[in-house]
Amino acid sequence: MDLGLKGKSAVITAASKGLGKATALEFAKEGAHILISSRDETELQKTQAEIKKISGNPHIEYTVCDVMNAEEIQQLARKAVSLNGTIDVLVNNAGGPPAGTFEDFEDEDWSRAFELNLLSFVRTIREVLPSMKKQQSGRIINIASSSIKQTLDNLILSNTFRAGIVGLSKSLSQELARDNILINTVGPGRIATDRVASLDEKNAEKLGMTSEEIRKKAEQSIPIGRYGEPEEFARAVVFLASEGNTYLTGQSLVVDGGLVKAL
């Protein structure tokens, strides 16, 4: 299937590593013109070079952007338009909030998680919509968590604000459909990233186990029997953002190897 992404302008936030990086690489393989961002310019430079080398796609640019900074988000959108003339695809991504239970967090923690994991998505969408509406076409993918279907223990901040992303996406799918702008949410399950490894280590410390034991235990609960690879997650994102998807909008997809049992 030709996904129709060659030459398309894609903006991907938090893309210097993990799921964002894997997603950027899959877009690059499809020939898209990509602008990646994160807070770390050194990591962005490394990621840019790596994606160019692996994909053979020279149209990979980067810009430093802290998604908790409204002005830097505005600059990100302006750079994408200046580079490629428009924005066809936005992939919203952000680092996860800290693990913990309700009594672990104060107002400051809740405010920071809100700004990082929900308000940042609102702001980036706001900045790309003028371009998408002008051309009467666009795709927005919001990366969340499997907690959009089933809450996760010891991750109350994530459970709360990832659910907000789903509400945002569903509401916007109704508002933006007339402009042929499709918006969907994709939640990773146990994908082999640094974030998941860090959570495994914290659980191991809490339970007096090794991280390897935690991983093996987790894999036993996954019907496919293993953690997913970042590229497996990324391919789902790329399809939803492509011309292969012309009718899916307002949906919440979990890429989890069958882990989540909720309908």
TrEMBL record:
Pfam families: adh_short_C2. Belongs to the short-chain dehydrogenases/reductases (SDR) family. Gene3D superfamilies: NAD(P)-binding Rossmann-like Domain. This is SDR family oxidoreductase. It comes from the Bacteria. Transmembrane segments: none annotated. Signal peptide: none annotated. PANTHER family: 3-OXOACYL-(ACYL-CARRIER-PROTEIN) REDUCTASE (PTHR42879), NADPH-DEPENDENT REDUCTASE BACG (PTHR42879:SF6).
